[in-house]
Design brief:
Layout: H1 2-7, E1 13-17, H2 19-28, H3 31-34, E2 42-48, H4 54-64, E3 74-80, E4 85-89, E5 98-102, H5 103-106, E6 120-124, E7 128-129, E8 134-139, E9 144-145, E10 153-157, H6 169-177
Parallel strand pairs: 1-2, 2-3
Antiparallel strand pairs: 3-4, 4-7, 5-6, 8-9, 8-10
Helix pairs in contact: 2-4
């Protein structure tokens, strides 16, 4: 992968991958390999993972900034195959958002923003919806919409949603048709 990136000279670059791909690039980034890199044309670096890890973004920026990589290029994203992949994405012209939340409250499915510490966990924001999606956080057992700063299942209603799973009518009904009353 590093070879492919190094072969791109002057054209604008957009690419994406899961968090582990950026970790792999970090592991492969020896001084000998990096000495010929120029990443100043990289304009969009999607990181579509669950989760996108803050330390990966920080380490990647620190390692590749001397080669022209700009922190604003990172666009953490979220998607599901059921919505033809992408649901939300960060804005590549802005620095991604990271929040620290209380680990104890997190265990109770509550988000409480706190200062970074040993008792906090970092979440990377995945930006805003990119289409006309309606995105809800729902208690999947009670089937009710949860208030802000609560953890639940992500339900998406969008024109890009699939109609169902191939040759799986019962699973498709339970996953897609039964939930329309809430979404």
């Amino acid at each position: 992968m590093l070879k492919i990136i190094s072969d791109i000279k002057d054209s604008p670059v957009a690419s994406g991958g899961p968090n582990f791909a950026y970790d792999l690039l970090l592991k492969s980034a020896t001084p000998q390999i990096l000495k010929n890199f120029n990443l100043s044309n990289w304009q969009l670096a999607l990181n579509g993972a669950e989760p996108v890890r803050s330390n990966t973004l920080t380490d990647f920026i620190k390692t590749f900034a001397p080669l022209g990589f700009k922190k604003e290029v990172f666009a953490p994203s979220y998607g599901m195959v059921e919505t033809t992949l992408i649901i939300s994405s960060g804005d590549p012209s802005k620095v991604h958002t990271v929040i620290s939340v209380d680990k104890r409250k997190l265990k109770r499915n509550i988000i409480e923003i706190v200062d970074k510490s040993n008792n906090s966990f970092e979440f990377v924001g995945h930006g805003k919806e990119i289409l006309d999606e309606k995105i809800l956080i729902v208690d999947p057992n009670k089937r009710n919409i949860l208030p802000d700063k609560r953890i639940g299942e992500i339900w998406v209603n969008s024109a890009s949603n699939t109609k169902g799973y191939w040759e799986k009518p019962e699973i498709s009904k339970n996953t897609f048709q039964d939930r329309k009353s809430v979404v």
